[in-house]
Amino acid sequence: GKGLAVFTSGGDSQGMNAAVRSVVRMGIYLGCKVYFIREGYQGMVDGGDNIEEANWSSVSSIIHKGGTIIGSARCMDFVQKEGRLKAACNLVTRGITNLVVIGGDGSLTGANLFRQEWSDLLDELLANNRITKDQREKYKYLHIAGLVGSIDNDFCGTDMTIGTDSALHRIIEAIDAIVSTAYSHQRTFIMEVMGRHCGYLALVAALSSEADQVFIPEDPVPYNWVEKLCKRLQQERKSGQRLNIIIVAEGAIDREGKPITAELVKKVVVDNLQQDTRITVLGHVQRGGSPSAFDRILGCRMGAEAVMALMEATPATEPCVVSLDGNQAVRLPLMECVRRTKAVSQAMTDKNWELAVQLRGRS
Ligand code: F6P
Hints:
By secondary structure, this protein is α/β, with parallel strands linked by helices. 45% of the residues lie in helices and 18% in strands. It has twelve helices and twelve strands. Strands 1, 2, 3, 4, 5, 6, 11 and 12 form an eight-stranded mixed sheet that branches. It has a four-stranded parallel sheet with strand order 8-9-7-10, with helices on both faces. A hairpin with a 2-residue loop joins strand 11 and strand 12. It is elongated, with a radius of gyration of 23 Å. The site of 6-O-phosphono-beta-D-fructofuranose (F6P) has 9 residues, from loops. Belongs to the phosphofructokinase type A (PFKA) family. ATP-dependent PFK group I subfamily. Eukaryotic two domain clade 'E' sub-subfamily.
């Protein structure tokens, strides 16, 4: 059977295990020899025990677990040519020419570059007698399928990344818990949520918890935000509300691009309204815990589709990313999605927020 390997790379997210499980089982079902690569690209470079054959039962009882059982890492060695040569050698000597990479845009970009370089890497390995002529010929094509695992929902091309829904569940639980204590003491709480430069988690959490205010990177606050915020909070209290909840995305900014931090918002509330105010930074709690049903199913569907894409690939097939479009699993050109995702970052840096939001929308 064909050699197929799965690895997780970059920050973990809930639902990655469901995806790993699905890749392994679909691969076996279709007659592949399936491998885990542990610790992301680092394991591919280091080889040895890091690359291990998987079987049907090695992915039993993992669908409900958060994180990734095969480990993840941000790898510096893979950035170096020698690292990639080692990685290619480790794959070829095991007969692996199909890769499923589960990660964010950085990890997917790395995979694409690896594939572009594959032929040159094999030539160099052959020249240095690290692989044989037969191996050079037999494994000359590398096929790649990407899955987007991230709580941030910041990848262009897919409606939801694997992990976002679970992170939202975690955030909502935390807000509900905070509300009861805030109510008792008539306090204002400022909750900082993750998402890097994407405000999706903050926005959806705010909508579903009836927060009074949300700060997100894509909609930087106007110059008179202090006045507007204070007026709103005051109104809420006057109308009998005993608490206020403000959600701040970790990437929130003002129109000059300066960060709007939880500390800053607290200072505004305390100085202007003298409200009893506390900050809660949710941090990595958002990335932990068991995956929601949605993320389990998403991981399963994406994983199976990735394996099918690889098995149908011809030498000319470009790397794809398996995405959710409406309720459909679709295959999109990996590099186009990465390019769009990078264009969003650039638009944000250029303070062109309208363009950023537009680019992030559906394809
Ligand atoms: O990309 C996922 C994420 O959790 C972001 O929301 C956050 O900014 C970042 O990773 C935190 O990174 P680390 O786990 O390296 O602290």
